[in-house]
Design goal:
The protein is an alpha/beta fold. It is built from 18 helices and ten strands. The protein folds into two domains: 159 residues, D-Maltodextrin-Binding Protein, domain 2; 140 residues, D-Maltodextrin-Binding Protein, domain 2 (3-Layer(aba) Sandwich). Helix content is 35%, strand content 15%.
Length: 356
């Protein structure tokens, strides 16, 4: 069965909408609320949220997004994938130039939600993460790091590999395996590359599961030998669990962004609180949990010096590697159709089918 490429979240909105009645019943609108899903905000930061602001946990990102437009919503925490599903006419410009000016240039696109240059920033991109290849007790493969993402096709990983749940991220990894530019710099004709369907099919055939949410658990339980995971989820464990080794190939990876967006008509931003995430001592506490703000390298060099160099390079990749990482901006409707067709064409063949 074909998996939807970009709109897999839409069904989850039903669950989010079901939470709105409860949300409305719990708030009288007197306190501006910061909505977030489990695991999407560092507790050390959330605990310092100033009054009258109130953190309001939600069961899922879908529930956070579904609350957009409800009274009393001051800020919503969303990943870039979810934030791009928000209607921009329901958002106010962030209005915090002094805050955004502290960030590295590669955070500019996410701050505009990838709209045209000159568009007022609509989001505070306070953390980012790459995807990394994580091995459990496979030092033999970790030593072959120069092979990059082609390690995913290692025969011994067949049925022992966890891939991301996003088809688009999986296809981005295939582009890097083939040495092709990321889709962000592709012209439409690139989708006709005859190598792509078979390369995507081969990678999908390797997978035990496409489920990064449970990928770390599958690794730790010994059910998988390797997984492609957001770096943030595994960074804290790399210092304590010697079974795990992680690498970011020289060809880079897609980026994942943590964004705070401001609903239309929201209360004034707690700018001093937002700024705390960009400087010690809170910055150091966030780094210890794998959260990395997109600050210029010189701002991160001192706090990262406390980390072993291989892990620090996963948190802030070398400039040449970071330059090969790309944010997943929205696809145009025609390109989305092309990508969906390519994904469907590359579905692994059933065991009783002939061919590769």
């Amino acid at each position: 069965m074909a998996l939807p490429l970009l709109h897999r979240r839409q069904l989850l909105h039903l669950g989010g909408l079901a939470c709105l009645a409860l949300l409305g019943g719990c708030s009288n609108g007197a306190e501006p609320q910061l909505l977030y899903a489990p695991g999407e905000l560092p507790s050390a930061w959330l605990k310092t949220l100033p009054k009258p602001w109130r953190g309001q946990p939600q069961p899922s990102p879908a529930a956070v997004l579904a609350a957009l437009g409800k009274p009393g919503m001051g800020l919503l925490q969303l990943s870039d994938g979810w934030a791009l599903d928000a209607r921009t006419d329901q958002l106010d410009p962030l209005g915090a130039p002094n805050l955004l000016d502290q960030l590295a240039p590669f955070a500019a696109g996410p701050s505009r939600l990838f709209q045209d240059e000159g568009t007022p920033p609509l989001a505070f991109p306070w953390a980012f993460s790459t995807w990394v290849l994580v091995f459990r007790n496979r030092a033999d493969l970790a030593r072959r790091r120069q092979e990059g993402w082609t390690l995913l096709l290692e025969p011994s990983l067949k049925g022992r590999l966890v891939l991301p749940s996003s088809p688009r991220v999986v296809m981005e990894l295939v582009l890097r395996q083939l040495g092709l530019p990321s889709e962000g710099s592709w012209h439409a004709a690139g989708l006709d590359d005859p190598k792509l369907p078979d390369a995507i099919r081969r990678l999908r055939s390797q997978a035990l599961a496409c489920d990064e949410a449970n990928g770390l658990n599958l690794l730790l339980a010994g059910e998988a030998d390797a997984a492609v995971l957001p770096a943030r989820r595994v960074l804290p464990l790399l210092r304590s669990d010697t079974r795990l080794q992680a690498l970011l190939p020289e060809s880079g990876s897609p980026l994942i962004w943590s964004l705070l967006v401001r609903p239309a008509g929201a209360a004034p931003l707690p700018q001093a609180w937002l700024a705390e995430v960009l400087k010690p001592p809170l910055l150091n506490r966030l780094l210890a949990k794998g959260w990395v703000p997109p600050l210029p390298a010189e701002r991160l060099s001192a706090p990262l010096s406390a980390w072993p160099e291989p892990i620090a390079q996963l948190m802030l990749p070398a400039p040449e590697v970071l330059a090969r990482c790309n944010s997943l901006a929205p696809l145009s409707a025609p390109k989305r159709i092309q990508w969906q067709a390519l994904w469907d064409q590359a579905a692994p063949k059933a065991p009783n089918q002939s061919g590769a």
